[in-house]
Structures are given as C-alpha cells and as structure tokens.
Protein: palmitoyl-CoA hydrolase
Organism: Strombidinopsis acuminata
Amino acid sequence: WIKRARPGTLTIPVPLFENSSSFTDLHTQVNGLMNFIRSTVNAAPHRFLNGYDLVCFSQGGLICRTTVQAMDDHNVQTLVSLAGPQQGVYGPSAYWWNHITSLPSEFQIAGKTDIFYRPFMQSSCSVANMWHDPTEEDEFRSQNVFLPLYNGL
C-alpha cells in the first residue's frame, strides 16, 4: 500500500522471524532486527543518508519500538507502530478457548501467568516476553525480562 500511495518509495520487507519463528524470544528478535538494519544500511549507505522510516505491525510494532530504543546508531526518522502490544498482552486466547475448553477460565489466565513468568519461558518465548498480568504487577516487574526493561519500569 505504501508503493501505491507514494510511487517510487523504497520499501524493504524484513524477512526475519516469520511464522513459527515469531515465537523466538524478543531479545533475540530485537538483536536480529538491529543486525538487519545495520547490514541493509551498510550495503547501500547513499540510499539512507536522510534516514529511514519503520512501519511495523502487531508484534513487529513492539519489536521496532524496542529496537529503536536499544540501537544507538539508528537513523530512524519516523516509527509507525500499528496495533503493537506496547504494554503487553493478557487474557484468554482464542486458541485456548477453542481447544482447551475443559479447563476453567481462571486457569486459562492464572496458568499462563505461572508458566510465562518462569525463566525458561522468558528466555525462549516471545509471548512470555509480552505477557503482562495486571493482577500480578510485582511478579511482572520482577520476572518478565523484556517489557519492564523497555517500558522503564
């Protein structure tokens, strides 16, 4: 849609962490995006003399925002985050409701909090990095290794 609205605009899709690899922990995804941006700019620096814009959607919106925060050598002029879960995600998912309906709804949320805040999940799963249980704020701040860091908590 960008090329239709602004013909001649250079657009570069980011071929990282697609499909099931989107479950990779968010620190790894942020580092991957930083490396992709650096290598893209270094390959054709004349194209990026005036900077570049990032247009990112959903989980990508969170990854782009935190990449801009973490990357001290970027030249991002505009960041557009569409439907990015900047404050995290919480609640029962459609998958759980449709496939695990025998579990009480309380477990579908409390069970996720218990699982997602474990060190193994925090070091390996993007959904765990985005999990923000508002009823367990202290646990969120002390156990989530991603969002509190980038949200200044």
Observations:
- The two ends are 36 Å apart (CA to CA).
